[in-house]
Design brief:
mainly beta; eight-stranded antiparallel beta barrel; 8 strands; globular; disordered N terminus
Length: 210
């Protein structure tokens, strides 16, 4: 007579069901993220900041951080001893509408230009793919906020495991800016050289792909 364990069929089926549930959850998350990107539409912008077809929007990030300035000697007026606030890096994090972190944002050397010059940079928070860009158009929309920008990609890099979230970026728009303007005081004379100011700002960043 053969003994049968009535629990065996249940235990052998539980693992596949759990594995399948995990796969479904991952696929659902991926589809949700893709749908979020596809649901976005380019923002209305002043003339000169548009991104023309065939480039299309694929990612929107809402940036929160600071524009970081240092008081440095400046020859902009032609007068010896003149000083001015100079931006040395933004320092921000970009989030989606669910408050999930998307990218970090800063200045760094662009390897596609042999590390010179330092360029504005975005790095994906998951796969560490990176894009470097330069501003090709700028419009001051609000006097007490940093300008709206159109930036063109000048370098990209895949993540160490082949991540490509940002490595296909062609253009980036910075819009809906608030704050971030250099202080009106604190950089007036040569003794002020070296002083730093970290000015809070927010902005929306739209990423395009061809």
């Amino acid at each position: 007579m053969t003994n049968r364990n009535p629990q065996q069929p249940k235990s052998t089926g539980a693992r596949p069901r759990r594995a399948w549930a995990s796969i479904v959850a991952l696929v659902t998350l991926a589809l949700t993220q893709v749908g979020y990107a596809e649901a976005q539409t380019p923002p209305p912008v002043p003339p000169g900041l548009e991104v023309e077809a065939p480039d299309t929007l694929f990612l929107l990030g809402r940036g929160v951080g600071t524009q970081n300035y240092e008081c440095q000697p400046s020859a902009s007026t032609g007068h010896i001893g003149h000083v001015a606030w100079t931006l040395f890096t933004p320092q921000a994090t970009l989030f989606n509408d669910l408050d999930e972190q998307l990218t970090t944002h800063f200045f760094s050397p662009n390897p596609d230009e042999d590390g010179r010059p330092v360029r504005v940079t975005w790095q994906d928070s998951r796969d560490t793919s990176t894009v470097w860009a330069r501003a090709i158009a700028s419009v001051v929309v609000t006097p007490n906020a940093v300008p709206w920008l159109l930036l063109q990609t000048v370098g990209t890099q895949e993540g160490p495991t082949g991540g490509t979230t940002l490595s296909q970026t062609t253009f980036i728009q910075r819009v809906n800016t608030r704050g971030g303007v250099a202080p009106a005081t604190g950089c007036d004379d040569l003794p002020d050289v070296g002083h730093k100011a970290f000015v809070p700002y927010t902005a929306d960043y739209f990423f395009f792909i061809n």
